[in-house]
Amino acid sequence: MTMTQIERDGRGAAAVPILRLVGRAVARAAVAVALPAAAVAIALACGAVLLALNGFDGADVVNVMILGVFQDFRSVTEILLKAVPLILIGAGLCVAFRCNMWNIGAEGQLYAGAVSATLIGISFEGLSPWLYVPAVLVAGALGGAIWGGIAGFLKVRFQASEIVTTIMLNYIALIGTSWLVTGPMRDARAAYPQSARLFREAWVPDLIAGTRLHIGILVAVALALVLYVFLYRSSAGYAVRVVGINPHAARYAGMNAGRNMMAAMCISGGMAGLAGAFEVAGVTHRLYQNISPGYGFEGIAVALLAGNNPLGAILSGGLFAVLRSGSELMQITSQVPQVLVSIIQGIVILSVVAFAAIRIWPRRRS
Amino acid sequence: MSERPFLRMDNIHKSFGEIIVSAGVTLEVEEGEIHSLLGENGAGKSVLMSILCGILSPNSGQIIYKGRPLNIGSPREAIRHRIGMVHQHFMLVPNLTVAENYVLGQGSPLRLIHDMEKVHARIRELSDRYGLGVRPDAVIEDLSVGEQQRVEILKVLYHGTDLLILDEPTAVLTPQETDRLLDLMRGLVKDGKTVIFISHKLDEVMRVSDRISVMRDCRVVHTTRVADTDPRELARLMVGRDVLMELPRAPADPGDVVLSVEGLSCRNDLGLPALRDIGLQVRRGEIVGVAGVSGNGQTELALAIAGLLPIDSGRLALNGRDITGLSPAEINARAFAHIPEDRHKMGILMPLSLAENAILERYDQPPFAARGMLQRRRIAAHTRDLIARFRIKTPDEEERIANLSGGNQQKLVVARELARDPDFILVSQLTRGIDIGAIEFILQEMLKQRDAGRAILLISTELEELFAICDRILVMFHGQILGEVPADRSRLEEVGLLMAGQKAGHVAQEA
Amino acid sequence: MESRVFRRAVLMGGMAGVLAGLLPAGKAWAEDLKMGLLVPGSVSEEGWNRIGYNALKGVQEQLGATISYVELQQNPASFEKAFYDYASQGYQVILGHGFEFQDAALSVAEDYPETWFLISSSDIHEGRVIGLHTDTSQPFYLMGVIAAKMGKKAGLVGGMEIPPIQQAFEGFKNGVRSVDPDFPISEAYIGNFTDTTAAKEAALSMIAQGADFVLPNASGATVGGYQGIAESGADVRTFSIFSDFTPVAPDNILGLYVADYAQGVVEVVRGIRDGAPPEANVVFGLKDEKVMQFTFREDGPVAVPDAIKAEVAEVAAQIAAGNIQTHSN
Amino acid sequence: MLDILTLGFLATLLGAAWRLATPLIFASIGEVISERAGVLNIGLEGTMLMGAFCGFAASFATGSIPLGLAAGIAAGMAFGLIFAFFTITVKANQIVVGAAINLLGLGLTAFLFRTYYVSTGRGVDIARPVRIPWLSDLPFFGEALFRQNLIVYSTVLVTVLAVILLYRSSFGLTLRAVGDHPKAVDVAGRSVAAYRYGAVLIGTGLAGLGGAFLTLGHSNQFVEGITSGRGFIALAVVVFARWSPVGAFFVSLLFGLFYALQLQLQAQPMLNIPYQAFQALPYLMTIVALIVVGGKSAAPRKLGTPYDER
Predict the structure, then answer these.
(1) Which of A37, A331, B433, D118 measures 20 to 30 Å from B453, CA to CA?
(2) D174 neighbourhood in chain B, CB within 8 Å
(3) Domain extent listing, chain A
(4) Where are the transmembrane segments (chain B) (predicted)?
(5) Which one-letter DSSP state was computed for residue A201?
(6) Which of D168, D190, D300 lies closest to B112 in CB terms?
(7) B337 and B418 in contact (C-beta within 8 Å)?
(8) Across residues D11-16, what is the average pLDDT?
């Protein structure tokens, strides 16, 4: 242990040698959390100013939007329920973005997953839940992975910009779902366009009885951890990151850039597809044409705020779920339009971007 | 030196952060001469000329042009003063025509372009006058590199120029095209223009210049009339180091052939022939050097051996087994190590830690990976070991490699490659951009590797480095191996001549 | 379709829920009436969602209830939560404004047997989950009769293919066929409730193909349909539905169908408060004159001939008496 | 039999296609200009919404359509300025900033509309159709194609102006160079950043105009989310049109045609094609176009890449 090391560790929590790594991890986490936190604070401040300028109470942003949603236990479970798709998608997108693949298509991948999960969930009556639930979830993940993989394939094989293709695939998935629930998959007995109800054995079990919170939250957190481990602890994840940082170096190291890009798209697509499966099998139990209120797009912001780190996506996914719930609460208590949340999310993104620039600027200017 | 020079650049300093790229350069150019700037890569030639053209702003220093101070730091100022530059990387917009490129940035932005016929006529007229064969309506991306260069030169002439700067213009030309270019330069001087010719090719410089300034380590070290010098002196000035390193070493004891290259030919990324029928062998326990002025195929040689550049013909073998056409991963797996030419482009990943950089090619192999997982303890221990053995200055193995100095970064690359226990080590530009202390350390390490029975191919433009550790030196010129010289300092001039494409009588001829 | 995509694309504030923890919920309020509303879209648009909101306001004004509403942007995942939130906060009456809320209400009702769940445009009656159906097919049936008597071809522009709209159109078609079984009708859905441009173009294309009686029914996008009609000249006839669109198409609108749903809801809620809840699902129709107002314009440049008016009045009476079935079940 | 084979049907279809294409033409030509300078703006949707809302609000307040259109353009450019500041000056990732712009556009327009206009329930006057002598009198086509308002006609003018700007002006020449080889422009003494700002502002101004058309040239009211995804379709148009303004005009028309056809075919009781098939067609065709023409071949070489002076 050299002096330098101890000095550096002094910035962290512990200078005791055995805790050196822990201390550094804490220090890094502190930095990783501080900037996004500042970005969120700026965005909330902007939101408060906007409210005040338009005749609302600016303090509501904190009192209602953030603190208000923690008033009772059920509200907390509902926040967690909203966090499930956000964490899944955000964590998955971290992998794509780390590989420098701009997957804007998580929304479409979510729909592809929801459709696949529904197809399985309405087809096999009497299966044991121990078999059925995993089958439905796997089907969802596969559907999403294929949808993401299409964009990956077009990129690797034809150099087609994944930004454009994923946007196009979003629309195709949404339109396709609309056709399915008004056409071939429509529940003939129901007037509302929706699929048949999934068999009960295919329903994702509740985590807490009496609430809607299902075990998806555990799966989401666990998978975010798994993806963190994948990216930072596995050799395959290492290759994904290297390809994203520097494709030349990746080739030099003997990695196949195309294969890694495909993998990154399939993983992020699979996570989004799984989110779709959880919505269908855990929440609505039917496929609707509006199964997602934009989780796929919000997931982009979740990943960005997390610094493309799947662990961070757990926190930022949770935060965005709070903002969403909070904005709903504000509409009820103060008649503040719910769309305030979009404005706040937009400012969060711009603040994160600006902070990143400020960190780079001094170096560039010197 | 004249009393009132045409151009005087005085004590020009420029740095990017801690990297100094111009260390107080002073340069004088007289009217109506061809003045060559000679120097190795990184000697600061292009930077100096970019400052003259206003593309870069110097930290300090002044420029006197035609007797008056030049307001520096603005490209438009340079254009206004009829200073034109042909850049090494062409400043031609690929999707525009020749004529459109010429009017780019001219006049008011709100102007409508309606007089293109006049522009075409003038281009044709100028093109005919200098015999350049430029078609004004050709789209740049359809032209060959040689044609594009003529377009670039004509662009400068079209804008009207008194001082023409040519930055490494011959690097991309065939010998015939080079001859035409040199003729053109003479013609321009006859028309009353002044030419600054940047090159590191001795023969061309000797053929065309009136005066020559040699740059080294971001300074002009010598200016002379061409009649007062000779290629040997220039070669020495170019590559010379004040301190000659004498590393103790035992005579080589070459064993079996490890790497053998036969009849290797390939093209560079522009599609031009880069290597022609290269043949060489490297044996166990020897260091073979490849010398040559940069741009003579060394980069392609390294990439082709490593499987990173497709080859047109030829055969590569490692330890007697054919490796022609194998993927980089497959070659890596055959006890092959590669210290690449440009560590930033290939060798290291700037945002990652030392530990993560230390496993670049072995990220999925034991002991660093087991059942698909990175073995962090082993990687850390391994990296700490490398740090200790190579005395890499870093707080610890978790530090971002971007925070290290160039020398320490390179030490990690060297350490990583050597730690793979290779039979063969391919080394490019081993000591580029790093400090003397690190150089000496790394060179000694290479000698140890040789003595441990490894075969090493060292490609370098630094003659000093080659002489310090190599057992024999191959000299590349125009994509071929022109000759082989024993690595004895007394033969330095011989190597210099070969680098300039001149074969002396007593040099052993090779294919 | 684009609209939904769009909403997802940029609007993340789709789903809503009531987290009424901050609302005063002390004992002092326990005796007071509290009513919550779930609407599937924005109450800022003229149309369906506004009708639900007006009903809520009516209950507040006439019964002095504490009210709250939440917009759910057609996202089914959020329906149950919203019901739970209101129910758990002691709201005695919750109005789910749309058929799509029915499943969620049934599920929540299991846990809150004391709470009344009112579901718009539903025929349900299970315990305290009660459907309140404004039978829009009835006035549309009348419009169909008028269309077949006055025009040559009819056009229907819908938002999305959901029951309230389909049922209204079915009533219209039945009305037309009661006069002329071969009368041509074209029908198109724009696939969303926001794209006014598409609604307008759909109306224009129908008119170009000969339709001279066109009815738009697409919630927020409805106004686009009236614009298309207005631009096509006075030969095209229409009715103003749900709101008064006369300023948009003054030369074309023959009359108004306005549902005072609020009045109907107020009466139901009053019954609940006073211990006289409905005993079956509630259907508002032409029989409920307070709720359903079907009027002809007297001032306009276009008018329905008196003979036809009289016939329509006769048909209306038959419907109110239950003698004419305006839609299948 | 089928009405769809008649000349009248075709004429009506084309007229509708042109109107439906109008916002796409403005936005996609704007995006062509922006992308030609190397800036990919996926924030078009939010920008168009701002144009639609501000155009509506200004016209609501003043009763003037020209003022409304000007406000729509100005609102688009204001968003363009934010986008340009972050992507060009701060050099942030263009995709990320574009996503933020979409959120802001949606949020702000809905927030302000609800706060100030919801209860008014009143619309604004919209631009009236204008007859063009001779053309409007042509049988069938005159009636359907040439009874549009001036904003629709102006798409032709904007296309011509864009062609002149891009291919016949010094500004356009430099702008195209900025997207392909910014260093060459820098060396020629022009500011890359200034040109990119210019391109983004023109692009977002046109997107704002496209949005304003929706509230001032077609419907007379603002509805939340009225753009209904047109900003994203415009991105597809640009790729399909291979970064050419004339191409953008015709591809927009083609997409408008699909939309119009979809509406008309639904109204044909005897045809039983799911309308979703037509809705999905533009997106599928864009992907096919990307595969056929190759992703990189036609795109500006530095698209999406911030310019670093070093």
Answers:
(1) B433
(2) 104-105, 109
(3) 1-56+342-366, 72-335
(4) none
(5) G
(6) D168
(7) yes
(8) 83
